[in-house]
Amino acid sequence: MDANSSRHLANFHSNVWGYNFLSYTSQLTEITTQEKLEVDEYKEKVMNMLMEIHDNSTQKLVLIDTIQRLGVSYHFHNEIETSIQNIFDASSQHSENNDNLHVVSLRIRLVRQQGHYISSDVFKQFVERDGKFKKTLNNDVQALLSLYEAAQMRVHGEDILEEALTFTTTHLESMIPMLNNPLKAQIIEALSHPIHKVIPRLGARKYIDIYENMESHNHLLLKFSKLDFNMLQKQHQRELSELTSWWKDLDLASKVPYARDKLVEGYTWTLGLYFEPKYSRARRMLVKVFKMLSICDDTYDAYATFDELVLFTNAIQR
């Protein structure tokens, strides 16, 4: 009898990547001194922009949002945190454009993203007595989009934001055929992957393209985000190349063929947690730990017999 006949094999999909990432050699992924100097130069200019604008102004809200969505906010963590704290502290006072739905929505989302609770009661001014949002907002695309993203930050029991999500989703979907890019692309992306639910690197890559096509884009911010994205991409490619080499040397794909061979997917998962350069070692260690754990998991769930698992469990416990 076939040794595998009594086993409940999962037959996982094969590895579609192979060892392709070994081609990203240290020469190809080298970050040059010129690249570092250029990024530092643009970083300083963006820092000056951040420091020059008053915290509770609409301009500052838009700048912080743009920096975050372009994927470069990790360079200005302390500065943004301080600004958001100041915005939160002043939220109970009359702020600039407090009757502007776009600005109010943007302010609430940015503050909540930073971990502060700011009441959604401010949206009551945009609602009719029946609890529905005012019809005058139906065609305000920018306001609808901002409210939609703010509604993603709702907590249990916030009926007004539940209504906001339904209201904005319905109207944004109906507007798509009538809009042109880049606004059309931005809405399609938002409906599929709201800011709060997207993997940061993927979100940044897509938003860079959208932002570039906006007539009002800031050339300095766009250039900085592209340089930074490319530099980070090189680092991530180098890390993935090193991990692929480690995985190939272990040859576990042939030794335990029943287990999932998903190194690249595991690395991508770590980027969702920590993509910043300073977490390079953490990413590599996490991937190695995940791979060992996934082999153990697949051994239990997709290969070993009960008697084998008893022996295996006893060995682990010892």
TrEMBL record:
GO terms for biological process: terpenoid biosynthetic process. Residues 16-191 form the Terpene synthase N-terminal domain. Keywords: Metal-binding. InterPro entries: Isoprenoid_synthase_dom_sf, Terpene_synth_N, Terpene_synth_N_sf, Terpene_synthase-like, Terpene_synthase_metal-bd, Terpenoid_cyclase/PrenylTrfase. Pfam families: Terpene_synth (PF01397), Terpene_synth_C (PF03936). One of its GO terms (molecular function) is magnesium ion binding. Residues 248-318 form the Terpene synthase metal-binding domain. This is Cembratrienol synthase 2a. It comes from Solanum tuberosum (Potato).
